[in-house]
Amino acid sequence: KIALEHIRKAYGQTQVIHGIDGEIEAGEFVVIVGPSGCGKSTLLRMIAGLETVTEGNIRIGDQIVNNLEPSQRDIAMVFQNYALYPHMSVFDNMSYGLKIRGLPKDEIKRRVEEAAKILELSPYLQRAPRQLSGGQRQRVAMGRAIVREPSVFLFDEPLSNLDAKLRVQMRLEIKKLQERLGITSVYVTHDQVEAMTLGHRLMVLNGGNVEQFGTPIDLYDKPQTLFVAGFIGSPA
Length: 236
Ligand code: ATP
Ligand code: MG
Description:
The protein is of the alpha/beta class. It has helices at 40-48, 90-99, 105-118, 134-146, 164-181, 192-198, 216-221, 226-232, and strands spanning 2-11, 14-24, 29-33, 55-60, 63-64, 75-78, 152-156, 184-189, 201-206, 209-214.
């Protein structure tokens, strides 16, 4: 479970997040959605520990994590630019993060093989990234996160570099994977359709404020603001 307790963020004098509250339940898939510049990545990066929190607390489980390094938080992140190491095999790309954490070799092998099976990458473990399709590369990036066995997944527009068809396919794969693993997930996108398909609940951000935090059906049937109605595209 993740709790956001009156989170604010300022860069210098400029406030970009204006006091966000919300709870993400264990096993839940929450999508943060909103237009470019509304603060989605900033919020996610604060949860990850890649940005400091100006005010408020972030809890993961029952621990306040504000002052913990990213590596001390039980999270794994998948970015838009998921650059794989080009000179390393798929296996080495997926295991690198475990190696530097000093996990035993046989444990690393077990985790990578298990993740590869889930992601249907088993036949490709010895290939170089350039010998894979875009979708397969994206799955390797997912694999790197899965092998960490985190209690939270954080995604920042992980599909935006893929073509439209592949994006839809990968979206379904991510949804299936999240349901299967049951890992609490926070997923950032500016794409309404992606948000509505993936999220158990959506946090709609606009200008650093939460417009509404609810299920896709809630947002569609009972938009609480004009912005939400327009953004989701309901006739209200
Ligand atoms: P996009 O959909 O384009 O990725 P976003 O919702 O992720 O947008 P953020 O990257 O969180 O938006 O940025 C929110 C605001 O904070 C923007 O106005 C941006 O210019 C500003 N901002 C982001 N990072 C910094 C920074 N390091 N220093 C100063 N301002 C920043
Ligand atoms: Mg962003």
